Automatic annotation (TrEMBL):
This is Aspartate carbamoyltransferase. InterPro entries: Asp/Orn_carbamoyltranf_P-bd, Asp/Orn_carbamoylTrfase, Asp/Orn_carbamoylTrfase_sf, Asp_carbamoyltransf, Asp_carbamoyltransf_Asp/Orn-bd. GO terms for biological process: 'de novo' pyrimidine nucleobase biosynthetic process; 'de novo' UMP biosynthetic process; amino acid metabolic process. Its EC number is 2.1.3.2. One of its GO terms (cellular component) is cytosol. It is an enzyme of class 2 (transferase). GO terms for molecular function: amino acid binding; aspartate carbamoyltransferase activity. Residues 152-297 form the Aspartate/ornithine carbamoyltransferase Asp/Orn-binding domain. Heterododecamer (2C3:3R2) of six catalytic PyrB chains organized as two trimers (C3), and six regulatory PyrI chains organized as three dimers (R2). It comes from Prosthecodimorpha hirschii. Residues 2-144 form the Aspartate/ornithine carbamoyltransferase carbamoyl-P binding domain. The keyword Cell membrane does not apply. Belongs to the aspartate/ornithine carbamoyltransferase superfamily. ATCase family. Carbamoyl phosphate binds at R54, T55, R104, H132, Q135, G260, P261.
Amino acid sequence: HKHLLGIEDLAPDEIVALIDRAEAQIEVSRQVEKKRTVLRGRTQINLFFEASTRTQSSFEIAGKRLGADVMNMSVASSSVKKGETLIDTATTLNAMHPDILVVRHHAAGAVHLLARKVSCSVVNAGDGAHEHPTQALLDALTIRRHKGTIRGLTVAICGDVAHSRVARSNIIALNALGARVRVIGPSTLMPRGIERLGVDVFTDMRRGLADCDIVMMLRLQRERMAGAFVPSVREYFHFWGLDQEKLGHAKPDALVMHPGPMNRGVEIDPEVADGPQSLIAEQVEMGVAVRMAVLETLAEHLPNA
Ligand code: CP
């Protein structure tokens, strides 16, 4: 593929190949000398229309470790603020001959649209509530390293499923890799027709968590909610927030994940987030390895590679 726009475009063996490649990058990232040359002479632009800590910094670190010149476009101080459109912004940057454009945008489909307008490779770093493919890859890598395999595991994805690109990409990836996927959350935050993606739907946390191997919490995305949020934050934590008692309904060796950023005390109790079953910090480490693997794979398809 020239681009990475979504997990939905990947065959199961392509997902596995990216995870395998990322596995090899973990050691590189732990060495004192981390620099590689596969992207030497290449230019990577990170274009983030939405806030990010993990994704943007790990794409920057990954690009630099592979030898690319990485430029972080500051949207907040760009001509986007003067009304320049997404497409005009992209074609302007494209005229500077980047090789890879990493894009995050608040509108679902915006990154696909942009990919049709530029000549370089495009990576989706999150588009609205649609896809966040590198998050699903890093989550699959994290799970596989702890459980040995993904096939046959029961994974519960919990909370604000309706607004979550992380949930969508993970559902597609985990199903492709042979997991049984459940979604758990209030019916007000459950998208209509979610069953069609191949998940079992629960509204009760304790029933949904029963016998799960992996408990993946989602951030409550209040910036994507137009009006008042139903239920209230207090009710949400009471019924759907992950605390030790609810986690006790999953398997004793269940592991807890969260893509970040976390709302502590809203969707997850700090005691669980920082507890022995939590993989949250490791997910961040795997994020760099996965982004190195994605950039390295795209590099093979760049002109004159
Ligand atoms: N998980 C994730 O995408 O985090 P950021 O929004 O900080 O990039």
